[in-house]
Sequence to fold (854 residues):
Amino acid sequence: MFTLTVNGREVTCEEDKKLIRFLRDDLHLMSVKDGCSEGACGTCHVIIDGKAVKACVPTVKRSEGKSITTVEGLSQEEKDAFVYAFGRTGAVQCGFCIPGMVICGKNLIDQNPNPTRDDIKNAIKNNICRCTGYVKIIDGIELAAKILRGEETIQAESADGQVGSDITRLDVAEKVLGTGLYADDYVMDDLLYASPIKSKYPRAIVKNIDASAALAMDGVVAVYTADDVPVNKVGHIRTDWDVLIPVGTTTRYTGDNICLVVAESEAILAEAKKAVQIDYEELEPVTDPREALKEDAPKVHSEGNMLTHEHLVKGDPEAARAKCKYIVSDHFKTPFTEHAFLEPECCISMPYKDGIKLITSDQGVYATRHEVSHMLDWPEERVYVENALVGGGFGGKEDMSVQHLAALVTYITGKKCKIKFTRQESIITHPKRHAADMEFTIGCDENGIFQFMQALIYFDTGAYASLGGPVLQRACTHAAGPYNYQNMDIEGYGVYTNNVPGGAYRGFGVCQSCFAIEALINRLADETGLSDWEIRYRNAIRPGQVLPNGQIADPSTALAETLEAVKPWFDSEKHVGLACGLKNAGVGVGLPDMGRCKMVVQDGLVYVQVGASDIGQGSRTVFWQMTVSATGLPADRIVVPSPSTEFAPNSGVTSGSRQTLVSGEAVRRAGTLLKNELDAGKTLADLEGQEFYAEYLAKTDPMGIDKPNPVSHVAYGYATHLVCLDDNGECYKVVAAHGVGKIVNPQALGGQIEGGVVMGLGYGLTEDYPLDNGVPKGKYGNIGLFKANKIPEIEVITIEKPGIEYAYGAIGVGELATIPTAPACQGAYYRLDGEFRKNLPLENTAYKKAKKKR
Fold:
């Protein structure tokens, strides 16, 4: 028996266990988030005897007799200060890291009521945030300190909630205080717990599964194999992903599920997994895309190793090449990278009505419903999917991970089931940013005007298709950059290997091709004698001009303005690099892309039902503001619930920076219908129970269409990022200038851009996903994630420019914010020391030393 004081109350624990498990499982203090249980992420910080400690590290025994404080134990004054400060500064996005940040902020303020920004950075240096880039969290702690020492006061919300106002996000309080529920936070009786056993090898024949020892253990319910799955294939676009690997067949990567163990408790489950014996015949994996395309290469899938092939030709590139004064070519490589969202994948499944209900963390409730119903061989209407709060995604939660496995247990047993990945299971399983091997060429005339470009791109799509086809498409369609020339020849291959799958990741393939083309432009600038800025400015796409894909740039196009915005720093700073980028909003290229909204009047409130996952980017707040603008109603009359297939219409997956524009336009249209009734003299009381439904199809032209100026995407955003290095090669400032159409919420927009910049810095300078012959070797603590004490100053410049007819002119910025940063880093180092680095993360820098040659 161990005695502790938790939030001022004496409590006892009968058995020794990790402190985090006692606080969450026994005391239900859900502000203590379980992000890794490895001491690496910081989401579980608590205060123990006046010191901020990660609760996943000490045991209850080591904590005996000590005083422990969680967010629940803060004084009301402290709670009010942090909620207000984090809301006012825009510190909250997905929110999963926030209680841990609050604890570290409180602990600092207790010891130093007037901390500097460097003090704050050091106080949270052991807390990872993947959404915000830390800037606004630092702002929030700084403001909270001012409030608590009496220099600032809490002010009433002054924004009216209209589009363009800085209204505080609607989910701030629940995320700051830890009262909002992520999937892992739901407490239910009579839960079963399940977990898959992963493959020991990237490529091996499963010879036998012996579960007899596990099944003999008390509390073990079942060990399911492929024979227990109604339809043993799922997949986001292509159904090529085995739910469980059948005996006698071959694994494709180490994240494959061999069998599914089900038990009555998590402790029993852990022991049962150890008792299952699996016999393998190990085979040599194929891990290189070019090798995988050879005739004698092992086949990852029976139909071959080619997932997809793209070949885009515009204009007459060979004739244009002949007219060039200068031509440069080179070979570039970029690695797999891990999303590292703070919340590991989790799902709870339960019997519901005539089917099954899933409470889950993903990026598309309808996509999950579609895949689960396919696996169960059920009509889709029998599967109900509801988002809990989602602790980040960045593309990594577009594919299913645990949802279908939890559903399978409920399908067979008729009981509730919870499945949660450990952090390491998450890292080895979900798809990553594609590794790329690229050959690029670009040429210009004597004045530096681009004439043509060519590219050959190999994407390692790993074991399964995931989003490999569309991601390769975006890499190819954006490979020429945001410039005014029309001759290109781009060929791309998406190739199956026995590596971890490549899938959706913030930037959606464009980060890879942008790195290559922007790096080459710097060499072309050297050939012409122009500056890196001047060559881009001469070629920058402007409204009315034709993009390389043939689409006419719309009036909102603001690339030239973003270049003008960074020019003062380009002229004044010593070692600078810059890069431009563009990114589509919406699915595009002729594919169906529908936003849908249903507004329901109930009890004097308007419920805005949109089946679009908010993964931290703030889409629920965006829809809230658009509803205020469309209806003219006060913000406190509007409610935007989390998406559920039971109540909200399908508005597609949160991907491709599409929700603000595509679903936002559906919201605007539905709000306009309601406004028409209000303008006719009706009140909300008169409209009780009525529904107002609208949808918006983002219509585009398919790739390869025989049309002079096809519309590939309904909108593009444009950006220029500039990176400044000191003489030691450390980045001390990034200037990020973005053309965004109409700004919906300035504060939220700034936070998206800052977060994207820091993620881009990681991609360029520090992050990697090491593999050894197909076997992942990285852990959350050593894959190079940027920390708060390492971030540079980030200056965000936003340029509003009308031109988009939909969603008040807003263009999503989530993906674009991370695209130009890595190539800007490359350019800065090139100007610092003259070394032209061709691989990411950049080597021989202040952040990463050159690899030793073997």
User: Anything to note?
Assistant: The first strand starts at residue 2 and ends at 6.
